[in-house]
Amino acid sequence: MYDTDHPAHKTLKEIGKEITTKVKPRAVIVFSAHWQAERAGQIEINTAETTDLIYDFHGFPTKYYEETFPHVGSKEIASEVMEAVQAANIDIKPVRRGLDHGVWASFKVAFDPGENPLKVPIVQASLFSSEDPHQHYRLGQAISELRSRNVQIIVSGMAVHNLRDMQLCHGSSKPLHYTASFDEALKEAVESPFEERERLMADLLKRPDARQAHPTFDHLLPIHIGAGAAAEDLGTRLWTLKEGSLSWAQYRFGAVDA
């Protein structure tokens, strides 16, 4: 967020501009790695229109806890999500919850309030409490129809996310072996034909390097929701950067009109 010279910063800004100027959604639904439902088999959704930001991290400089990001929710959009999810026999619980940093930190770059404001409601929903990729894929399928109503579905995680191994990099940006291998395996699975995509993406969690790339799967599961929501639309890796024990890959499902 503060490292404006980092290549991921530029890429996020480009994606944000594409969404506001070409996609022009009437609302955004977002799933973040940093919100998992408390109850098994259930997801949660924020239905409040006005909420605070959540500073769900520790030990950072004071300025991180003073960050702001203007946002508004929507009871109407939340209701549409709930109806779609319930129609798929998925339990969903309405709650009041602010945006966590898995949303606002990246959105503040993509939708800079001074340069490219996102002037539509943002509704955040949770992941399941499980690490079941099929469960999350089917959640995406349940809300897929909302895309036809001009609702943008955004999923926030990371292609590779191992903070514990950052110390092994000793300040070097050279990717660790599993960063390179898992990043490319994810690309292959996401870009596969939609008939095979769910199976291939689920198989990622069984790879020998999976727990190195993701000690917990919370940062991987959001893209399963995105892939499920894509229906027959193909996935494309727009960009990647393998950096130490992290990968900053960005994906899109479907095409954007010129």
Short description:
The protein has 258 residues and is an alpha/beta fold. The chain is built from 8 helices and 10 strands. The chain is globular.
Polypeptide structure, described:
- It is a single chain.
- By secondary structure, the chain is of the alpha/beta class.
- Helices cover 34% and strands 18% of the residues.
- It has 8 helices and 10 strands.
- The chain has helices at residues 7-23, 75-87, 101-110, 133-143, 177-190, 194-203, 210-213, 221-229, and strands at 27-36, 42-46, 91-95, 122-127, 151-156, 160-161, 235-239, 242-243, 246-247, 250-253.
- The model has no long low-confidence stretch (mean pLDDT 96).
Main attributes of the structure:
alpha/beta, 258 residues, 3-stranded parallel sheet
Unreliable segments (pLDDT under 50, ≥5 consecutive)? none
Specify the helix fraction band.
25-40%
Radius of gyration: 17 Å
How would a crystallographer describe the biggest sheet? Answer: 3 strands, parallel
Number of strands: 10
Order of helices and strands: HEEHEHEHEEHHHHEEEE
Shape label: globular
Protein structure class: alpha/beta
Q: Report the sheet-strand fraction.
A: 15-25%
Q: How far from one another are the termini?
A: 28 Å
* Number of separate helices: 8
| Mean pLDDT score | 96
Major β-sheet strand ordering? 4-1-5
